[in-house]
Amino acid sequence: MTAKQYDLQAVIESENKKNPPIEITAGKKTFLVPPMILWSDAAFEAAKAEDVVGAAKMVLGKDYDAFTAAGGTAALLFIIVKQSQRASVPE
User: Fold this and answer.
1) Domain for residue 91, yes or no?
2) What are 50-71's pLDDT values in tens digits?
3) Which of 10, 33, 53, 77 has the most CB atoms in a 10 Å sphere around its CB?
């Protein structure tokens, strides 16, 4: 019996097509949030542990400071994620 093979990059691309990034606009700046399925393990674990600020910083990366400067918060980010993907923070 032969093992089924998967190309990791193809799987990632497929998930991006099925679950495109969330676009959040604040003034003239647009922030892209990857779908939860593509979050790093660290971001996922932070969200699971209810460290929403830590998770938001990992998900937005270098854009986190600009996001908060535009009036965004980690809590608002998670509200948007839940609304747009009909997902909840993992339990």
Assistant:
1) no
2) 999 999 999 999 999 999 999 9
3) 77
